[in-house]
Amino acid sequence: MSQVDTYLKAAERDTTRRSYASALRHFEVEWKGFLPATQEAVARYLADYAASLSMNTLQHRLAALSHWHTAHGFPDPTKSSMVRQVMRGIRTLHPAQEKRAKPLQLDVLQRIDSWLQTAAETGQAQGDRAAILRHTRDRALVLLGFWRGFRSDELVRLRIEHIDVAHGEGLTCFVPRSKGDRNAEGRTFRCPALSRMCPVSAYESWLTTSGLTDGPVFRAIDRWGTIASGGLAAASIIPLLRRLFAAVGVTDVEDYSSHSLRRGFAGWANASGWDIKELMEYVGWRDIKSAIRYLDVSPEGLKERFERGLPRVPEGAREEPATSGKPQSKVIRFPTK
Q1: Residues with Cβ < 8 Å from 198, sequence gap 6 or more?
Q2: 302-323: per-residue pLDDT in tens?
Q3: Phi-psi region of 225 (alpha: psi -120 to 50; beta: other; left: phi over 0)
Q4: Where on the phi/psi map is residue 149: left (φ > 0), alpha (ψ -120 to 50), or beta?
Q5: Which of 33, 134, 152, 154 is the most exposed place for a label (fewest CB within 10 A)?
Q6: How far is Cα of residue 90 from the mean position of the Cα atoms in its chain?
Q7: Which long-range contacts (CB under 8 A, 24 or more apart) does 116-122 make?
Q8: How is 225-284 classified by DSSP, letter by letter?
Q9: Which residue range forms the structural domain that includes residue 53?
Q10: Do residues 73 and 124 share a domain?
Q11: Which residues pair with residue 330 across a beta bridge?
Q12: Is residue 176 part of a domain?
């Protein structure tokens, strides 16, 4: 491999490279398409899968095809007016509401934290090294993931040599590369030490228990308590979290994903009075649209906002139900003189 090829490869994220390769295999192997492709072929491909694949998946397939043609010096058929029109028609005929992961609520986080501490203590009493390591690792992963608003790819990229801890104050971690870091400049994140459910003390406990001094923070652990040399795969975070949700009695575990950590933190920060600028700076969002996607307005919060904007009932007036049945609205009656 030449130096140019080395740098070209380094310019792409591994996950992007793998996902593009998978998309191209689908086009060539599953659909029996040919590369380079014509605009007509791309349009037929989209039409054939319009009803079965989500709009996000179709857009990703187009991105992969576009990247292949550009990289190999061919005209890009995905930019043609025909393909754009087909995509517009698919949006019209197959509208779909984006499915978002449920946010991890603070009470569930508390239950998970308590369960993991108890499970680690049980493992200690039974001399089960694997259980001690696994539960201590999971506690650090969940608390750090929640309070830092990390995605799964950021969690698995954390390295011990990139994290500095000020005991009782907080930690600073450097992430060399992440999804939003388009220029691969790396980002530095800070996280405070907390009086409860503390991510800093959980991280310190994991290092002390595991004996790790460098390399990936979060790693696989086999049933004999052997810690892997490499880091966890990003795809392993979702099943790990769902097992924890199930362990504390959450029933709809399939509605949660690794995004639940970030969505949960964003919702907590919003409810705690953070403004959008503070939240964006802390999490690392540069686009306000990205931040808004993670925020939900609860029905209770929505009702409170409306009630604050309603006119006050005049002093001396009284409210009575409009009907004797189930009250749907109220009638305000004023005292007669």
Answers
A1: 143
A2: 566 676 767 776 766 555 554 5
A3: left
A4: left
A5: 33
A6: 27
A7: 116/142, 116/244
A8: -PEEEEEPPGGGHHHHHHHHHHHTT-S-GGG--THHHHHHHHHHHHHTT--HHHHHHHHT
A9: 13-93
A10: no
A11: 321
A12: yes
pLDDT tens by residue, 4-63: 666 556 556 677 888 999 999 999 999 999 999 999 999 999 999 999 998 989 999 999
On whether both 166 and 87 belong to a single domain, the answer is: no
* Together in a domain, 131 and 242: yes
Q: Could you give the CA distance from residue 40 to residue 19 in angstroms, rounded to a whole number? A: 24
Classify residue 302: in a domain, yes or no. no
- Quickly list H helices, 129-213: 129-148, 152-157, 199-210
Rounded to whole angstroms, how far apart are CA atoms 217 and 207?
A: 8
Record the pTM: 0.72
**How far from the centroid of its chain's Cα atoms is residue 321's Cα?**
45
Q: What is the tally of structural domains in the chain?
A: 2
| Inside any domain, residue 231 | yes
Q: 38 and 125 in one domain?
A: no
Shared domain check, 23 and 71: yes
